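Quick one, tokens below. Sequence please?
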């Protein structure tokens, strides 16, 4: 299959230099990069930890919730008002 890619001059110059240093064709280096791209997407992503508690409590370490408090959309309720 043939296609046309518009590669910025600076990136193509680096690609040419790398191909020349390795004694390979530019196409071979480009195809190797394309083959490596899907592998980089499969890497597990870091889990972002919360910096503060999800729910406020008057007694940290313990909280009593009813089903309405846990199921209500977060953006539609206030912490100190009834649900």
């Amino acid at each position: 299959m043939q296609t046309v890619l518009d590669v910025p001059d600076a990136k193509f110059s680096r690609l040419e230099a790398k191909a020349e240093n390795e004694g390979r064709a530019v196409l071979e280096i480009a195809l190797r990069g394309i083959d490596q791209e899907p592998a980089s997407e499969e890497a597990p992503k870091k889990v972002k930890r919360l910096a503060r508690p999800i729910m406020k409590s008057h007694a940290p370490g313990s909280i009593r919730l009813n089903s309405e408090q846990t199921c209500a959309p977060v953006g539609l309720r206030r912490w100190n008002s009834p649900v």
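Residues 26-41 form the longest helix (16 residues). Helices lie at 9-22, 26-41, 67-71.
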